[in-house]
Structures are given as structure tokens and as C-alpha cells.
Amino acid sequence: MTVLVTGATGNAGGAVVRALAAAGVPGKALVRGKAELLAGIEPVYGDLGRPDTFVEALDGISAIFLLSGYERVEELLANAVKAGVERVVLLSSSSVDSEQTSNAIAQYHLAAENAVDASGLDWTFLRPNSFMSNTLRWLDQLRLGNVVRVQFPDIPVATIHPDDVADVALHAMTGNGHSRTVYRLTGPVALKPSEQVEILGQALGRPLRAHELSRAESHEQLFASMPAPYAEAIERFFGDGIIDETAVNDTVETITGHPARTLQDWTRTNTNLFS
Ligand SMILES: NC(=O)c1ccc[n+]([C@@H]2O[C@H](COP(=O)([O-])OP(=O)(O)OC[C@H]3O[C@@H](n4cnc5c(N)ncnc54)[C@H](OP(=O)(O)O)[C@@H]3O)[C@@H](O)[C@H]2O)c1
């Protein structure tokens, strides 16, 4: 069993790389730039937008941890089939549950799920809530002071630790009983943005305070920070409530045998990212 991890320099893929290394599972980490060993895992070059760039890297691979959202995914999957890959664990998202096919984010995750299903490869789809690492979106504001302007302040979200996504992915890639299964993954507790800010402040030892944006201000900030279809998608998720990231389930614990990690866990181990 050798695993290819895509998105290996990112929050989720990076956590999968570390989980593989800790478990002693052989793997390769797909990277776009030059890289040293990642947590002891060999980097291999590849661009998900150009599947021809990593045909050789698929040699000897039995499972892929795959990110959604790449237009030529069918080609990539056909290469994987040719190379003898057996299963794909796809990082999809909670947005697919909304069944909103006109929503730009739900749409690209659903397209990836459909492509993987059509490929004939065995699969597991992970549909996690928002990641705890999204806390990093407040970084620029934190450099300016202790006030964090938060969008959709009344909506509690059970954000998930990337390490928990990774642990579930590892089980799905290396264990039995996860074939053609969809896992909705949540964190352990739903927290409003102001509560998340408070937890971050405790970890950083700073008196952080949330400034709650109105719906109109949230709209303005969102559309200024990303392309309109994605801003609109997020506004529909949290502003209009078309996804439920407030409910908590025990899927992480059921699969991994350990409770889902808390935001306190994430902030404690990532304070260095805020300095
Ligand atoms: N954030 C959330 O709340 C959330 C929730 C549910 C699902 N998701 C899904 O999870 C995915 C990963 O999230 P994340 O927070 O781990 O993202 P991230 O930290 O931004 O990492 C993205 C990773 O993808 C790599 N990448 C980007 N374009 C690539 C390409 N063309 N070819 C190869 N690699 C490429 C990046 O590599 P470089 O270092 O080269 O840029 C990086 O390793 C998201 O894209 C989303 O689909 C996210």
C-alpha cells in the first residue's frame, strides 16, 4: 500500500502527510514547487490542473487522497486507473449535502464526486465542515490589533481540525469497510465566531474581541475578498442557511477511535502561525 497525497503543502493534505508518516504508511506527497521531504514523505512534482505532469508519480500507488475542484479530474482518474490505483479518498465538503447544484462551491465538489464515481475506482467521499485552520483568515486583522471583524456572527459552526480529516482519510485509505461510503465530518462543538475569537485569544495570550458584522457588511467583506461566485456561495451557506454546519456528529470518533479535536487543540498547536 502506497498513498499519493495531493494538496500536501496545505492544511488538509499536510495533515494527511503527517498522519501517514506517523502511522508508517508508505506515501508520496504531490507538490507544485521544490520541496524537501515532507514529514519524511517523498515529494513528487505534479500540477492537478495538468494531470500529464504526474503520470510517473502514479506508478506503484494504490490509493490517492484527492482534492476537489480541478477541471481535468477525469483525465487524472483515467491515468490512475491505468497505473493500477485501487481507491480514491476524495476531500469533498459539507456543501454537497445542500444539494444546491447552482452553488459554485457545492457544484465543484459534486462534479469531483461524480467523476470519481464514474471512474470505476473504489472511493470514499469525505464531506467535512469548515476547517479550524480557516481561523488563519483573521491573520491580517490580528496584525493590526485585537479586534476581529467576524462575518455571520449569529451562526455557530462545528469547525473540524484538519488532523481529524486526515485521520479519517488514513483509515479510509488503509482500512476496510469504507468502500463507496460518504462521511459527513464535524468538529466536537458548534461555536459562534465570537467564541472562536475568544479561544484564539486565550491561546495567543491576547485580549481579542469580536466585532460582529451586519449581513450587509459581511456581504461587502466577502465579495471584496474572493471571486463573486464563491462569495455568493458562502453567503448562501451561512447567510441563508443552506448548509448545516451547526449540528455535531460522532463520525470522527466512530472511525478513528478518538474524540474529535477541539479548537483549543488547534489554536494551542498553531500559535506560531499568528506571530
Ligand atoms: N477550508 C475549509 O473550510 C474546507 C472545508 C471543506 C472542504 N475543503 C476543501 O479542502 C481543500 C483543501 O483545503 P486546505 O485548507 O487544505 O487548502 P490549502 O491549505 O489552501 O491547500 C491547498 C493545497 O492544494 C495545492 N494545490 C493548489 N492548486 C494545485 C494544483 N493546481 N496542483 C497541485 N496542487 C495544488 C496547494 O499547493 P501549493 O502549496 O503549491 O499552493 C496546497 O497544497 C479546499 O480546496 C476545499 O476544496 C475546505
Could you provide a short overview of the structure?
With 275 residues, the chain is an alpha/beta fold. The protein has helices at 11-23, 73-83, 104-119, 139-144, 162-174, 193-204, 215-225, 228-239, 251-256, 263-269, and strands at 3-5, 27-31, 42-45, 63-67, 87-91, 122-128, 147-150, 181-185, 209-212.
Structure report:
There is one protein chain. This protein starts with a strand and ends in a 6-residue tail after the last helix. It is globular, with a radius of gyration of 19 Å. Helix 1 packs across helix 5. With 275 residues, the protein is of the alpha/beta class. It has a single domain, classed as Rossmann fold (3-Layer(aba) Sandwich), CATH 3.40.50.720. It is 39% helix and 15% strand. It has a seven-stranded parallel β-sheet, sandwiched between helices. Bound molecules: NADP nicotinamide-adenine-dinucleotide phosphate (NAP). NADP nicotinamide-adenine-dinucleotide phosphate binds next to helix 1.
Based on CA inertia axes, which overall geometry fits? globular
Number of strands: 9
Here the CATH topology equals Rossmann fold
CATH superfamily: NAD(P)-binding Rossmann-like Domain
Please outline the helices and strands:
Blueprint: E1 3-5, H1 11-23, E2 27-31, E3 42-45, E4 63-67, H2 73-83, E5 87-91, H3 104-119, E6 122-128, H4 139-144, E7 147-150, H5 162-174, E8 181-185, H6 193-204, E9 209-212, H7 215-225, H8 228-239, H9 251-256, H10 263-269
Parallel strand pairs: 1-2, 1-4, 2-3, 4-5, 5-6, 6-8, 7-9
Helix pairs in contact: 1-5, 2-3, 6-10, 7-8
NADP nicotinamide-adenine-dinucleotide phosphate (NAP) is lined by residues 6-13, 30, 32-33, 47-49, 67-69, 91, 93, 128, 130-131, 133-134.
